[in-house]
Amino acid sequence: MTAQPTDIATYNFAYLDEQTKRMIRRAILKGIAIPGYQVPFASREMPMPYGWGTGGVQVTASIIGPDDVLKVIDQGADDTTNAVSIRAFFKKVANVAVTTQTAKATIIQTRHRIPEHPLGAGQVLVYQVPIPEPLRFLEPRETETRKMHALEEYGLMHVKLYEDIARHGRIATTYAYPVKVEGRYVMDPSPTPKFDNPKMHRSPALQLFGAGREKRIYALPPFTEVVSLDFEDHPFEVQTFDQPCALCAAENVYLDEVILDDHGGHMFVCSDTDHCEKRREEGHRGHLAPETHLAPEKMEPTQ
Amino acid sequence: MTDEPLLRVSALSKFYGSRVGCENVTFDLWPGEVLAVVGESGSGKTTLLNCLSTRLLPSSGTASYRMRDGQFRELYRMSEAERRFLMRTDWGFVHQNPADGLRMTVSAGANVGERLMAVGDRHYGKIRATAVDWLSRVEIDEDRIDDEPRAFSGGMRQRLQIARNLVTGPRLVFMDEPTGGLDVSVQARLLDLLRGLVTDLCLAAIVVTHDLAVARLLSQRMMVMKDGRVVESGLTDRVLDDPRAPYTQLLVSSILQV
């Protein structure tokens, strides 16, 4: 790939050097060939701290091309620090087009959400993963967890769910909810809310997971079977909300609680900002939506 | 009862470099039989136990185990997956220190249920009912089911470890000093419990102990080891009442009288 004419000539296209991208692409290909299997890779230092998406950024940098359109979300939002800075980073080092619209993006890097708008074939979802090993907190030895994956010994994963029910009367895990991929590997879907787990199942988009600090890449090729673990008498359920989004009145979406004042005032709004804005443009109104067309961050204080 | 042994061990040796762990051990173990392995520290008892339970691979020799389908399988030729499966279904291993055999940070119920979940049980209600049943069989109150073993006394932890091992109905249990570190009254209750369970479930067991009284109470047959070799073996009562090898005589005469 030729370097783009930019003012930062010392950087290669998309920041990483071609050898590194080649190494990461190999890891990605292996991950796609063995869905759910954690492939070790030589994670590089990135110009951002661990925990801010170094894994996701390396994956994105390795697959992005000059014609791609990038969207970056952080907890569903396009306008938070992490999303804004990663988007700006790729705009600068790869000179690619960026968007906030799910349908228009070819690559979506995400921290902890899957967009509400259904993903299509040809789109790539890149997850930022803090801890790729679903068995980590149950079995601290990496040598042992690798063996357990190799031998398909996953009884321990259900021990965690058993503990949940024994303590809380139900499966209380709400995010990073373990899934079984193609009936073989148990995988951590990264700390997405379990609300998003069903969206991974047979998704037409390619899903890639990068964990920079832990130096692991794993993948779900399109149309992969992804089943959330559960008990026969305590089946898997997603979160439900007893009210629609306060701004766009959407139902059956994942909502965030937003504090409005110091007197306990709060509202529930879509965590997916793009989805929420689109619905408001279409004329949907929640009970707290402002009269005019204004994004929530531009709202005037009410008092 | 069948007329075939459960475990056949032939010329088993384990060397640590030039040092001898255990050497040339041969015996058969029959279904429902309890075999005690006694000897002083460093005599190779634990090495032998670890080799038999495939936690260690021996330097030479063979051991074959009669599977549930009646076929003998050579333990050291099985794949690791098969051995580990055997370990958590048809076998049990009771460690001297319960912390080695338990998950200290999950509840007692989950400790007992883990093996069931590992073999594919996916019904919470049934797993919990089985756990309650097993806790009562090892004399742990039902209301302790959601407590972590960290909150248990040494004797209770050991009983919990036994329940955790027996829940899948194993046919062979390995025990490494099961009563080590417990005071005498707790030891007596544990032995009583073990004796009852072994008889009720027709368990075969290999018990490693340095305590001849434990061997006398639990086992039908015993092997005396010294410096990695078996110096004497036979029926427990015979060995203890009429020891033949000089070392056994020394061992028996060293028992403290109260």
From TrEMBL, chain A:
Its EC number is 4.7.1.1. It catalyses: alpha-D-ribose 1-methylphosphonate 5-phosphate + AH2 + S-adenosyl-L-methionine = alpha-D-ribose 1,2-cyclic phosphate 5-phosphate + methane + 5'-deoxyadenosine + L-methionine + A + H(+). Residues 281-303 are annotated as: Disordered. It holds the Pfam family PhnJ. InterPro entries: PhnJ. It comes from Mesorhizobium tianshanense. Catalyzes the breakage of the C-P bond in alpha-D-ribose 1-methylphosphonate 5-phosphate (PRPn) forming alpha-D-ribose. The keyword S-adenosyl-L-methionine applies. Belongs to the PhnJ family. GO terms for biological process: organic phosphonate catabolic process. This is Alpha-D-ribose 1-methylphosphonate 5-phosphate C-P lyase. It comes from the Bacteria. Keywords: 4Fe-4S, Iron, Iron-sulfur, Lyase, Metal-binding, S-adenosyl-L-methionine.
TrEMBL record, chain B:
The keyword Glycosyltransferase does not apply. GO terms for molecular function: ATP binding; ATP hydrolysis activity. GO terms for biological process: organic phosphonate catabolic process. InterPro entries: AAA+_ATPase (IPR003593), ABC_transporter-like_ATP-bd (IPR003439), ABC_transporter-like_CS (IPR017871), P-loop_NTPase (IPR027417), PhnK (IPR012700). The keyword Repeat does not apply. Residues 7-252 form the ABC transporter domain. Coiled coil: none annotated. Keywords: ATP-binding, Nucleotide-binding. Pfam families: ABC_tran. Belongs to the ABC transporter superfamily. PANTHER family: PHOSPHONATES UTILIZATION ATP-BINDING PROTEIN PHNK-RELATED. This is Putative phosphonate transport system ATP-binding protein. It comes from Mesorhizobium tianshanense. The lineage of its organism: Bacteria, Pseudomonadati, Pseudomonadota, Alphaproteobacteria, Hyphomicrobiales.
